[in-house]
Amino acid sequence: MTRKINSVKLFCNDNAKSQAIKELISEKLIANKYCIVNESPDLCLAIGGDGSFLRMVKGNNFKSEPLYVGINAGTLGFLQEIKIDDIDDFIYKINNNLFKVDEIGIQETKIVTIDNTSIFYSLNEIVLRDKDLNTTKLDIKVDNAKLEKFVGDGILISTSTGSTAYNLSFGGAIVANNLHTLQITPIAPLNSKSYRSLINSIIIPENTFITIIPEKENANLLVTIDGDNNVYNNVEKIETFVNKKRIKCLRLENYNFFEKINEKFL
Q1: CA 128, CA 71: separation in Å to the nearest integer?
Q2: 39: how many CB neighbours lie within 10 A of its CB?
């Protein structure tokens, strides 16, 4: 890797542990001739747990130019590449370009209501439920071909990166995060004489659109985008796909996705 890093922007939780780590790494970065900046950084660095990483990417408007990496000061820290004890080694490796870059796909979602159209980006997933948490009834299409009429508690649509997050709690598949897929995972689907819904996840390739159309009596939805909840009334349709936009995640040379699965989950 030959990309030179000169400037760093720090994103940090408010808790005392994360703030102390921020102060420590700021001192170490400055001592190694790095500039701490607020605008146009070469490297964005999140200090905290996985939520910090998500807030960092969102706070930087999903820009593709910088590299993104995290220091794990949380619990699981699946998205956080650097352990606290390895900060000195991390700085040595970026000094000597001993890292690689993974390009990660971004999910783009368009929500169309009677009155408005909104567009959002997400790194992990979107979740669709009835506003009052009643049974959710949704027609789901893939590139305009009917997949199913879903009836159940809700639908989760995750990226490859998000496959190891909320998706995993509902029995979804783990997908290597350098693939650019979406995964439709049912939440408590109903199966009876009246309703038949898929009970397993289905993985959708990139360059493919997923369209969700709620039934008219079920058009008020609670939409969760990377953990942020919003209610949308009179939803006509929701479209989601993997955008051509990518973010670039810094990986140390010894990073291995499958070893990380073993470390974090087994």
Answers
A1: 31
A2: 6
